[in-house]
Amino acid sequence: MSKQRTLCKFFVHGACLKGDHCEFSHDWKDPQNNVCTFYQKGICAYGSRCRYEHVKASRTPSSSSSSSANPPEFLLSEPILSAPSSGAPSVLEGHVPSTTADLSFSSRSSANEPAWGKIVGLDVESQDISIGQKRSLNPADQPICSFAAAGHCPRGEMCPHIHGDLCPTCGKHCLHPFRPQEREDHYQSCVRRQNHLEALKCSQEIECSVCLERVLSKPTAAERKFGILSECDHPFCIGCIRNWRSSSPASGMDMNSALRSCPICRKLSYFVIPSVIWYSSKEEKQEIVESYKTKLRSIDCKHFDFGNGSCPFGTSCFYKHAYRDGRLEEVTLRHLGAEDGQTVIAKNIRLSDFLSNLQIR
Amino acid sequence: MDLSRVHKELRECNKDVEVSGIHIALKSDSLTHLVGTIPGPLGTPYEGGTFKIDIILTDGYPFEPPKMKFVTKVWHPNISSQSGAICLDILKDQWSPALTLKTALLSIQALLSAPEPGDPQDAVVAQQYLKEYPTFVSTARYWTEAFAKESSLGVAEKVQRLVEMGFPEDLVRSALEAAGGDENLALEKLCTA
């Protein structure tokens, strides 16, 4: 079945506050529901100046609102659409339409059905097209009630829209009963968010050993981050640990042994990972480190500069070393046998190294 | 400088002063100049003495070590008998921002009980420590008695003597306190003031 959704009206105007959680589509490819809801009810105060289309539509969610009914009311419109090609097997045949309203409703709107079909039909998968005009109103096309999804629907049982199933994690009626993929997506993102909140709660109490303050109670959002050291498990805020590691070794401190080491256990760490949450297990730390590295790997290294520059970190660089054509840098290390039997890796020698020292007289 | 951290440190340190015996007080209105007090460790020639340490916090604190030196005169191989300068790695290249004023003072207290004559600040004291240990112990004990003890009688006598020289009593008391009980130093201060 096509999982076609209606384009979000607010998204079209660039002002949807629900973002990823909007029950309407934020994909420009999806058809827009441009039918005036007031016209469906009989009168639109804007008349010909209305920015929405004044057509009699059968499929808009608002049209079903004219007939008061209980949540599974979306089934109402089913016989409407299957009416023109009566006799053909309907996808929704299994469902029993509520008989009270649908007769009058179908007779009124069946004539206008092609108008809808024209809009919606654009993106329908081929198997649906083969069914032709019979392409019935799929309950999965119906958006769920946004009030219920947000927590509470004032219309309760009387609401003409589908009320979503209860999500066990976030406790809202926001699982669409007929969109398994969306349910799964929501469920997963909900669990992920829940875990994140849990971890955030645990991280709340953790103090930075340098500023002696709770990291997540710092005044600005930028400061409310941990700086995780790669080799040990002592918590610091990102600002403090970066400050320490970059402080000038003017006071006679040794750069590598003093500044690069953990202020508490003095274990040497070569990099600091910023993180909003603190970890409670080795695996969680590994996950944070990996996701950080993955993020950096997608960013082009400014030193490498698509092959124009040279990166001092070489193969150890966390950033992406790719040329303009998308080819990744291939590194072949030259191993040199030193006199004492040790193997050293030869540094890249660039012509520019010589040219920059060259003095032209 | 991280002022809130200094505030916090002072509060924390002075909370358990009964247990540790370590106290930090403001020298002036600003938080950059402080005075720490540590008791002489038991079982050492410094036992019974109270040692004052001048603490100056730089702008880089806590990323730079605090500048500390003894105000009270001490006879110790790693502390200058003249200037009070302290030779301790954590106050120099081994400083870490996870250390606090209290832990630094605790380290100094530990230094009093475990001298390092191999890495001396005061060569004369270190020589004595290595070659004539009994003399070192008696000298250190004498210095503790003379400079680090504020027996009420001793202070009263010193005040009495200085007042007789013609200085007002309140000035004498504050000068003596600033000099850590050293009568000569107090006299010097009074004369230059």
Tell me about this structure:
Chain A is mainly alpha-helical. Among the domains of chain A are: 115-205, no CATH class; 206-297, no CATH class; 305-357, no CATH class. In chain A, 31% of the residues lie in helices and 6% in strands. Chain A is elongated and about 95 Å long. Residues 60-135 of chain A have low confidence and may be disordered. Chain B contains 8 helices and 4 strands, in the order ααββββαααααα. Chain B is of the alpha+beta class and 193 residues long. Chain B has helices at residues 3-15, 17-20, 101-113, 123-131, 133-148, 152-164, 169-178, 183-192; strands at residues 23-26, 33-39, 50-56, 67-70. Chain B has a 4-stranded antiparallel sheet. The mean pLDDT of chain B is 87. Chain B folds into 2 domains: 3-148, Ubiquitin Conjugating Enzyme (Roll); 155-192, Helicase, Ruva Protein, domain 3. In chain B, 46% of the residues lie in helices and 11% in strands. The A-B interface holds A 209-213, 234, 240, 243-244, 247, 251-254, 258, 263-264, 266 and B 2, 4-5, 8-9, 60, 62-65, 92-100.
Q: Ranges of chain B with pLDDT <50 over ≥5 residues?
A: none
Q: Tally of extended strands of chain B?
A: 4
- For the biggest β-sheet of chain B, the strand order reads 1-2-3-4
- Give helix and strand order of chain A, one letter per element, not per position: HHHHHHHHEEHEHHEHEEH
Q: Give the percentage of residues in beta strands of chain A.
A: 5-15%
How far apart lie the N and C ends of chain A?
A: 78 Å
Kindly report the name of the CATH homologous superfamily of the largest domain in chain B. Ubiquitin Conjugating Enzyme
- The CATH architecture name of the largest domain in chain B reads Roll
Task: Tell me the overall shape of chain A.
Answer: elongated
Tell me the distance between the termini of chain B.
Answer: 31 Å
Q: What is the number of independent domains of chain B?
A: 2
Structural class of chain B: alpha+beta
Strand tally of chain A, please? Answer: 6
Sheet having the most strands of chain B: 4 strands, antiparallel
Which assembly state applies to the chains in this document? heterodimer
Biggest sheet of chain A, open or closed, and with what strands and sense?
A: 2 strands, antiparallel
Q: Mind telling me the C-alpha Rg of chain B?
A: 17 Å
